Amino acid sequence: MSDGRGLSHRAIREAAYEANMAIYRSGLIILTWGNASAADHASGVFAIKPSGVAYDELSPEKMVVVGIETGEVEDGALRPSSDTATHQRIFASFPAVGGIVHTHSTFATCYAQAASPIPCMGTTHADHFAGPVPVTRHPSAEEIAAGYEAATGDIIVEHFKANALDPLHVPAVLLPHHGPFAWGESAAKAVENAVALEAVARMALYTGTIVHASPPIPDRLQQKHFARKHGSDAYYGQPG
């Protein structure tokens, strides 16, 4: 099923399935606490994990295809993830984002539960994130009542736009007292960023146990390390 302009439903289902299995194999997932999605902006749809289905029962066919603009199920026999509206808001607002991962990974969730950004303490963090991983505001009672998951996505978008953050330079966020979302140009890149997020959260937390109120990395070093891997002047890795 495709309109010829982008990936078929089969292709994004496979990408979403592979992303979900990758976060499961990585250890970021406990029980069914998490989900991943893959978007095809050209066709205006994304595929996402079905709600509450165990990871060892997943298959590409079980991924649910949802409209990016409408948030309505377009293809699939199962109910999509309860976080679908959050994914939809992010995809609809950030066309450069091609995949999203939500987990309750231990260390990133610790920072989220503390409603604290993850500080950029060193070059490992700076290689993946251009500065601290931010934490958003809480949803209001009215926002929760009107549509919690959609409001969560709106709040993420609001935070990035209000603070002029490039979602591909800071490809993750913490929801206070909830957990992390990560994303990337593709579902595979979103998985990579979710893994990196958990690693830098663990390092930051341990660093704080060694030196209380440890200073963040100097701006010049943070900017250098991010620029080595990202942007037009990046020189990390192989050409092309």
Question: Could you walk me through the main structural features you see in this protein, from its secondary elements to its overall organization?
Answer:
The chain has 240 residues and is an alpha+beta fold. It is built from seven helices and seven strands; from the N terminus they run αββββαβαααββαα. It has a seven-stranded antiparallel beta sheet, with helices on both faces. A hairpin with a 5-residue loop joins strand 3 and strand 4 (73-75). Helix 1 (9-25) runs parallel beside helix 6 (187-210) and helix 3 packs across helix 6. The radius of gyration is 18 Å and the shape is globular. The relative contact order is 0.15.
The named CATH superfamily:
Class II aldolase/adducin N-terminal domain
N-to-C order of helices and strands? HEEEEHEHHHEEHH
Uncertain runs are 1-6
Distance between the termini: 31 Å
Mean of the pLDDT scores? 92
Instruction: Identify the overall geometry.
Output: globular
Q: What portion of the residues fall into strands of 2 or more residues?
A: 5-15%
**In the CATH hierarchy, what is the class?**
Alpha Beta
CATH topology: L-fuculose-1-phosphate Aldolase
Query: How many distinct domains?
Result: 1
- Gyration radius, rounded: 18 Å
Strand order, sheet with most strands: 4-3-2-1-5-7-6
Helix content: 40-55%
The description of the largest β-sheet is:
7 strands, antiparallel
Question: What structural class do the secondary elements suggest?
Answer: alpha+beta
- The assigned CATH architecture is 3-Layer(aba) Sandwich
Distinct helical segment count: 7
Instruction: Count the beta strands.
Output: 7
